Structure formats: C-alpha cells, structure tokens
Amino acid sequence: MSGSTPVIEKFEDGPVWTIGYLVYDVSTKEALVIDVPMWSAEKIYRRVKELGLSVKYIVATHGHWDHIGDMKKLKQLTGAAVCANPSDGWMMRDPNGMVIPPPERVEPCEAETPLVDGSELRVGNFRFKTIYTPGHSAGSICLYEEEAAILFTGDTLFAGSVGRVDLPTGSMEVISKSISEKLMTLPEDVRIFPGHGADSTLKRERTTNQFVQMMSAER
Ligand SMILES: [Fe+2]
After folding, report:
1. What would the mean pLDDT of 16-23 be, rounded to a whole number?
2. How remote is the CA of residue 1 from the centroid of ligand 1, in Å?
3. In-domain check, residue 204
4. 91 C-alpha to center of ligand 1: Å?
C-alpha cells in the first residue's frame, strides 16, 4: 500500500450537470474514470494525454444516460474496459428509450466487466472496491478506496440529499437500506464524491443530511 491518495479531477458536464471523475495514481500513471457525462469525453481525454495517463477502467455508477452520455466515445478514445453492475445493462444498451429521454442522442454502451458487491478494481497502488447500493436504480454501485478513505457515490448519496427513486427500478425502501446499512457503516472520515453537486464526508451527511437521518431512524 502506498499510504497516499489518488488524484481526483472533476468533469462536470452535460444538461443536468453530472460529474465524471478522472482518478489516478501519480506514481504509476494508471487511471480510472467514474461516469462520463454528455460532452465530456474529449475534455477528459485531452487531460489524460496531457498527464500521460493510461486509463484502465471506465466505471458507470449506474445506467442513467446523464452518467454514460459520452462513455462509448471515451472507450473508443482510451480502449479502457467499461465496468458496471449488470442490473443496469438494459439502460446502457438503450439510453434513448428511457422515460425521461436525453436531449440529444446518446450512444449505447455495453459493459464488458461486471461489477458486483465486493468486485475490486486495481489502479496503480489503489484498490477500488464495489459496494452494491441499489435503490436509485437496481444497478447502482458505489466505489470505495479504503486506504485513501474516499467513496464515489453516484446518484445514491449527495451532500444534503439522496438519489431520486421515482425512475424505473428505483425504490425508497431499497435505497434506504443501501445507505443506512452499507454506506453509513463505513468510517465517518470517509470523503464522498457524488455524481452531482458538492463533495462531503460521511460524518457531515450523518449529522446534517435529513434524508439520511430519517432512513437511519426507520431502521
Ligand atoms: Fe441517476
């Protein structure tokens, strides 16, 4: 273990301000990208080239089009393996057929590496562990790097809020269980990096996020 932390760069883009994260180990130059918003692939790729990085994986935290809008394009540019939970595969294969369709056509994207609870991705000296957190969608996951105490939460947990549950396969009961039993049991100094909005810490969400407090009270 390096004892250091990976570098995290944010790419906030697309019509609903979705955040893609370029995460890399400065010592080995290996990288992974977590979510690829619409219009962001070329910007991310430019940065990858500038830093001389090698992108090993592209992860979808879930299948909604705003998170995979430019995923196919980034895959073509980098050759990295696309990884996602299989339960959202149907959304990634048909992003234009969603109940709320994208404002412009999104290229379908197939995940070749399935991520299930406990799946690990090694990037440089870091290990990103998949935490399966359904509820916002049936295939929602979070990525956790324990040593660096960082957690990428997609649309499951936000600073001050939680993911909506009114889209297909969403469930309040299920997201509530995911957050209270899987995320809130992690150390409180863990920093969270959501798919929209500001980053935060688990401690701050535990103490100030009213949705999280309601979910914990119900258990
Ligand atoms: Fe979403």
Report:
1. 98
2. 33
3. no
4. 11
